[in-house]
Amino acid sequence: RSCPALKGLRLEGTRVTGERLEGPYTQLEKVDLVGSGITDAGLRALCRSCPALKKLDLRHTKVTGERLEGPYPQLEKVYLFESGFTDGGLLKLCWSCPALKVLNLRGTKVTG
Length: 112
Known about the structure:
Largest sheet: 5 strands, parallel
């Protein structure tokens, strides 16, 4: 079941993969997945279900971003510090997020 009025979701340090988090979560604006077990498939499923998503925190996760499929028109802040994000994932993210204002890539596999 979904929670249509949910505005924020914090799953920091959990083993949640995200693959069963399909909403819709029409009001969800902030998702914190720091150090969680989120997978690329789980991230794609979650993002598809959150049209209002503005902030996404993926620090210390293994996601690469390779399976992202936008657009994510509201997404403004993405934190990828020490994540598994790759050049391909970054390219998909940037093409999918026209409103992106803050992007932290420190400690990722992105080479430029």
